[in-house]
Design a protein that fits this description.
Length: 575
């Protein structure tokens, strides 16, 4: 029996909007049968919609007849393919048998995954359907097919799974594939090339099937069903074949157990206080202390070398560091001066504290306002309030100072103050302290320092602070004559001067006789004899108590405490 040429089933388009694949000009070659039975390959198709059992029973022989030749004598089982649904069973079921003729042509290799209709002879097949399986099988797994009429020959087109969830079987029942009127000579299937071929009219609806999922075969069988319908004559037209089919979605790789690695502990960044961390500040302080000690030692050695010169020694003998005050100058430190000294120290420390808060604040913690004052931050309110108290205390000090004649103690009354101040500075630097008694008179260097602090630095701080405050009048002409930039350029350096003055003043008080000097300033006790009250601890006790009060006020400069105090003088709000 000579092999006959037959047509093969066309599948879905390879690309969206394309034609059925492979082209109709391709044919399936028929070769001589071989001894081992060859199973019919089945395509992987999507689920099909529900089909009545009557239709399945009617069309089952037609489907098998399209697969098996007419002269089949021995029966053989079809090769099971992939399941028709997810987690389904291999298709077709194991009970389905196909009787083949000894002379029936067999394919030497799988071609297109579809049943091939032999146009040379009518096909006959015997099927042993499983009635129970057909009844319980879900309708969504039933495959449908429509016939192709090609001049007396018929072929079936199988319908597969739906393209979307809960959709209809694909392709739709209206889809009809056309075959040529006369089959061409057998030719092997070629891969798609960039050329023009004459193929059948494309179907009315085309969907890309390249991304269809690949399902693993299962062990249990299912029932197959198909329907037949006539197909119209093909209308050929030239269409350019796609150069490259759409890439299929890669199968998911099997997951491997992964071991969770313990992440390496991240090194936390040390907290910074300004430009340096705490450790860096400590190291910088130690290094700075050693540098300061080295520089102080060098200065002392240089000062001693200068003081050992005969001319310099004679200068120091002539100007010992102080000059005699007028005979009308009062002696001693009254109690009002001691109290004023304490209040001045107390207010100066808090003014510096509040000034730094204002300078470095990013967002004010609260605001204060009144009928006569615009809204300002709570820190600025504290700073301005302390400035006002400090100015009042200073005015009281100056008034009482001139009223009692104590102004002669801090205001120079002779030009000899300058050479004596130079001599006192040289004696301080050489650590040969000048002989003095603050109860009677200050040395010239102290007198100049007090004069600059009381009559130059303090007024300058008050004037620049008033220009920077909200109380400055809204007068453009006045603001133009006194620009705010000048006030900013002078106010902060003035504060630095007060810090330096307090630091040097405290160091000299403790290094030139702490008990005696503290008795003068805090206990208002002293004598014309420099050695008197040298062992009295009253002044040191008062000084320690004043430090506790200042520390408590420093800690109390917090928004909660300040807000409770500020409410007595205005309105406090968070905005």
């Amino acid at each position: 029996m000579s092999p006959t040429s037959n047509t093969f089933r066309q599948g879905l388009p390879r690309v969206a909007g394309g034609d059925p694949w492979p082209p109709v000009t391709e044919v399936v070659p028929q070769v001589e049968p071989v001894a081992p039975p060859v199973a019919v390959e089945s395509d992987v198709a999507p689920q099909a919609p529900e089909v009545p059992s009557e239709v399945v029973a009617d069309v089952a022989p037609a489907v098998i007849s399209a697969v098996a030749p007419a002269s089949a004598t021995p029966a053989r089982s079809l090769r099971q393919g992939l399941p028709r649904s997810v987690d389904g069973q291999p298709w077709p079921p194991a009970q389905t048998l196909v009787t083949t003729s000894a002379a029936a042509p067999a394919r030497s290799e799988p071609v297109v995954a579809a049943p091939v209709a032999d146009s040379a002879a009518p096909a006959e097949a015997e099927v042993e359907p499983d009635a129970a399986a057909a009844e319980v099988a879900p309708a969504s797994t039933t495959a449908l097919a429509s016939p192709i009429a090609t001049g007396g020959e018929s072929a079936t087109i199988r319908r597969g799974l739906p393209r979307v969830a809960d959709g209809e079987a694909w392709p739709p029942s209206s889809f009809i594939a056309s075959a040529p009127s006369s089959p061409a000579s057998p030719a092997p299937i070629q891969p798609p090339v960039e050329e023009t071929k004459t193929i059948a009219t494309p179907p009315a609806q085309v969907v890309d099937t390249s991304a269809a999922p690949v399902l693993e075969p299962q062990a249990q069988p299912e029932v197959v069903a198909a329907t037949t319908a006539p197909a119209p004559s093909p209308t050929e037209q030239p269409v350019k074949a796609p150069a490259k089919p759409a890439a299929q979605a890669p199968a998911a790789a099997p997951s491997k157990p992964t071991t969770t690695a313990t992440p390496a502990p991240t090194k936390t960044e040390p907290k910074r206080h300004g430009p340096l961390t705490t450790k860096q500040w400590v190291l910088a302080s130690i290094l700075g202390a050693f540098c300061a000690l080295g520089m102080a030692t060098a200065v002392v050695l240089v000062a001693r070398g200068i003081a050992s010169i005969d001319a310099v020694a004679a200068f120091i003998d002539r100007y010992p560091g102080e000059y005699h005050l007028p005979e009308s100058a009062p002696v001693g430190v009254p109690a009002w001066l001691a109290w004023n000294h304490f209040f001045n120290f107390f207010l100066m420390v808090l003014i510096i504290r509040s000034g730094m808060l204002v300078r470095h604040q990013k967002k004010p913690p609260a605001y204060w306002s009144s009928k006569r004052s615009p809204k300002v931050s709570i820190n600025l309110w504290l700073h301005q309030s302390l400035d006002l108290l400090w100015i009042i205390n200073g005015l009281v000090f100056v008034i009482v100072l001139f009223a009692t004649g104590h102004w002669m103690r801090i205001i120079p009354t002779s030009w000899e103050v300058f050479p004596n101040a130079l001599s006192a500075a040289l004696q301080y630097l050489s650590l040969d302290w000048p002989t003095e008694n603050g109860w009677v008179n200050y040395n010239s260097l102290q007198q100049l320092a007090y004069f600059v602090t009381v009559f130059i630095a303090a007024p300058l701080a008050a004037i620049t602070g008033f220009r920077l405050s909200a109380f400055w009048p809204k007068n453009p002409a006045l603001s133009k004559r006194y620009p705010i930039e000048w006030a900013r350029a002078l106010h902060f350096p003035t504060m630095l001067y007060f810090v330096l003055f307090i630091l040097v003043h405290v160091i000299l008080v403790f290094s030139t006789g702490a008990l005696r000097n503290l008795n003068h300033m805090y206990a208002a006790q002293g004598s014309t004899d420099p050695t008197a009250y040298a062992d009295n601890w009253a002044g040191l006790l008062y000084f320690a108590l004043s430090l506790l009060v200042i520390m408590g006020a420093w800690i109390a400069c917090r928004p909660m405490v300040l807000a409770s105090i500020a409410r007595f003088f205005g309105k406090v709000s968070s905005r």
